[in-house]
Write a structure and sequence with these properties.
- The protein is an alpha+beta fold.
- It is built from 18 helices and 33 strands.
- The chain has a six-stranded mixed beta sheet. Strands 3, 19, 20, 23 and 24 form a five-stranded antiparallel beta sheet that branches.
- Strand 28 and strand 29 form a beta hairpin.
- Helix 3 packs antiparallel against helix 4.
- The radius of gyration is 26 Å and the shape is globular.
């Protein structure tokens, strides 16, 4: 391969951010080194062989993507293979990344060996959109003053041009290379990746700095030049790390890295606090504080009353039980008049954590999302291997039968066991509304589907629907281990090269049983963000959105059931219920108790009862259920 000339560095224009010589742990670092490791032809061919084998034999959405987009990824890889002699290393990795992105699947991504100092490249500001989708206004919502020296470039200025291109057109152009099954989903991801790039699954930016034309708060047109900077936000201390949870994840890993990078940029004190001795002690002790990066809660006041607000930032945790215990601790301090569950920008995570949490908000049994494998010779071979029994045993028989019948998919079976979705019971008795957007993805999609399909509450959606990530995702190491056990070994990839693939597709349950999530998402009641939603700070943030949700919650029926235990005696307080049943270890504990008025009642539980369950009815429907351990 011929040596290439090093591009001559140009000095940034006036107004550009100054480079910081200090460590990234204190400030972002201006980064210009964005090369790529050199690979031999044999290493390039190994990448093609491994990726082709997995896409052809395991990729869950292969036929769906062919029919939706008229794009055959396997033929495209073979065509690219023929061009190897004419391609530089940089061209090879950019072309392969672009090719895989044409699947519009954030679960299925290629990672090239980019030579960069930090895993995230970012600009020192954030742009968000408000108003109607067909004519949005783009406003700067956050600025990192450590990197921006222009005193006029502040929160609230309106962005007009990006490197000379009208900003709305710049978003559209960038969306052409983004994942997302719908145009609004691609635009949402493009708006985010214009200022934040996770280099694990995307090439570095082409430019070293960006020229923005903006309108300041006084209405004057101005221009600023800002450098791309490298940061390493690291994973959250309680994030998923073990192999046991890794193969049961549904996550956009790039979006999770960007979520952490935003925290590093704009909530740096919180990011630093995670690493203090006190925070480490809190994680060891467990409780809500151990999961502060994933869950936050507060009481919000609206014209319709006071409600609880629970932000679920991510499900990317290792321990689903401790995560749910942390949620229960936060819920106990919130008003029971109604709850807003905010899942905007949630990139997903551990499937068990998302689906087991649903039971906290309903008195009824929860049916989880179901998953299936593509029925191929390769997946059948994986199911036969004893090494893979823990993950594939439930699907094995249907995969074997499909080889005889020609069925394209295995049976659809939950990843989260039905029993684990219903082992804790209801903990919040008020009405619930969930808020999502086009960046709510993967396990975030599954949680949203569970809210709707189990009739827990309505959905408010910024955009057409959630991000439409309907699959369980495995990385190359997981796939290589599973296929090696099935006597179908994959070649070893060069250092720094990897990929992830959607291996089990998800379908909804309940009223939408069998409906695909991939490329469709979960729709809801549409809502257009306002300027006040975006620019409000602290308790004033999302003010109009919260008011809207408060009106929805106030219109729903409300009841209350509180149960306190002292020894073998339960004190039951009720509001708005007309009937109460008692179950002891799953069996009726006596006749139905009519409730003619609100108030307090005492129930004596017989000795040797392990679990007592109090069920409250209103108008013939189950409204409340509490499960109390008596041992």
């Amino acid at each position: 391969m011929s040596a290439r000339k090093k591009p001559r560095k140009r000095a940034p224009r006036a107004g550009a951010a100054a480079a910081y010589p200090t460590r990234w742990a204190s400030r972002p670092r201006t980064t210009t080194k964005t090369g790529v490791k050199s690979l031999s032809w044999g290493e390039r061919l190994d990448i093609f062989d491994a990726l082709s084998a997995v896409l052809e034999g395991v990729y869950a959405h292969l036929t769906l993507k062919r029919s939706l987009y008229g794009f055959d990824v396997l033929r495209a890889i073979e065509h690219l293979r023929q061009q190897l002699p004419t391609m530089t290393d940089l061209q090879f990795h950019r072309e392969l990344t672009s090719l895989v992105n044409r699947l519009r699947d954030a679960h299925t991504q290629y990672q090239g060996p980019w030579e960069v100092q930090d895993p995230i490249m970012s600009l020192p500001f954030l742009v968000e959109a408000y108003g109607p989708a067909e004519n949005p206004t783009y406003v700067v919502s956050k600025v990192d003053r450590r990197s921006v020296k222009d005193p006029n470039f502040v929160e609230g200025v309106t962005v007009q041009h990006w490197n000379g291109i009208p900003f709305d057109r710049a978003v559209d152009l960038h969306a052409e290379n983004e994942t997302g099954g719908r145009p609004d989903a691609r635009r949402a991801r493009a708006l985010e990746s214009l200022t934040f790039r996770a280099l694990e699954y995307a090439p570095p930016p082409n430019e070293e700095w960006v020229v923005l034309k903006y309108t300041d708060l006084a209405g004057r047109s101005r221009e600023v030049t800002l450098n791309w900077e490298g940061i390493d936000p690291q994973r959250a201390p309680t994030a998923s790390r073990t192999s046991g949870t890794r193969v049961r994840r549904a996550i956009n890993s790039a979006a999770e890295a960007v979520r952490r990078a935003k925290k590093f940029r704009f909530s740096h004190e919180q990011w630093r606090a995670e690493r203090t001795a006190g925070a480490q002690a809190a994680r060891k002790a467990g409780g809500a504080g151990a999961f502060a990066d994933f869950l936050t809660a507060r009481t919000v006041r609206t014209r319709s009353g006071d409600f609880g607000y629970l932000r679920i930032w991510s499900f990317d945790v290792d321990d689903d039980q401790k995560f749910i215990d942390a949620a229960r601790a936060l819920l106990s301090g919130l008003p029971d008049r109604g709850l807003i569950l905010d899942l905007r920008d949630n990139p997903g995570g551990y499937i068990w954590a998302a689906e087991r949490m649903l039971q906290l908000f309903t008195p009824n049994t929860v049916t989880p999302t179901k998953f299936s494998w593509r029925a191929t010779d390769l997946t059948a071979a994986m199911a036969r291997a004893p090494f893979n029994e823990a993950e594939l045993a439930p699907w094995a028989e249907s995969l074997f039968n499909a080889q005889l019948t020609g069925e394209p998919y295995s049976s659809h079976i939950p990843i989260t066991p039905y029993e684990r979705c219903n082992d804790l019971g209801q903990h919040y008795g008020g009405p619930v509304v969930a808020v999502v957007d086009a960046n709510t993805y993967s396990s975030g999609d599954l949680f949203t589907a569970g809210i709707l399909d189990n009739r827990i509450g309505p959905i408010v959606c910024i955009g057409e629907a959630t991000g439409a990530g309907g699959a369980n995702v495995w990385d190359f190491d997981d796939l290589r281990a599973a296929l090696s056990a099935a006597d179908h070994p994959l070649p070893k990839l060069p250092a720094g090269v990897s990929f992830t693939v959607a291996v089990r597709r998800a379908v909804r349950s309940g009223d939408a049983d069998g409906t695909l999530i991939e490329d469709a998402g979960i729709p809801g009641q549409p809502y257009e963000m306002t300027r006040d939603d975006i620019l409000g700070r602290g308790h004033q943030s999302n003010a109009d959105l919260i008011e809207h949700c408060g009106e929805i919650l106030a219109a729903q029926p409300w009841t209350r059931l509180d149960v306190a235990r002292r020894g073998r005696v339960l004190t039951v307080d009720t509001v708005g219920l007309d009937q109460m049943d008692l179950y002891l270890d799953g069996h009726p504990g006596g006749p139905t108790t009519p409730l003619s008025n609100d108030g307090s009642r005492r129930v004596v539980v017989p000795a040797r009862t392990r679990i007592a369950e109090v069920v409250g009815f209103a108008g013939g429907a189950v409204r409340q259920r509490r499960r109390i351990r008596m041992d």
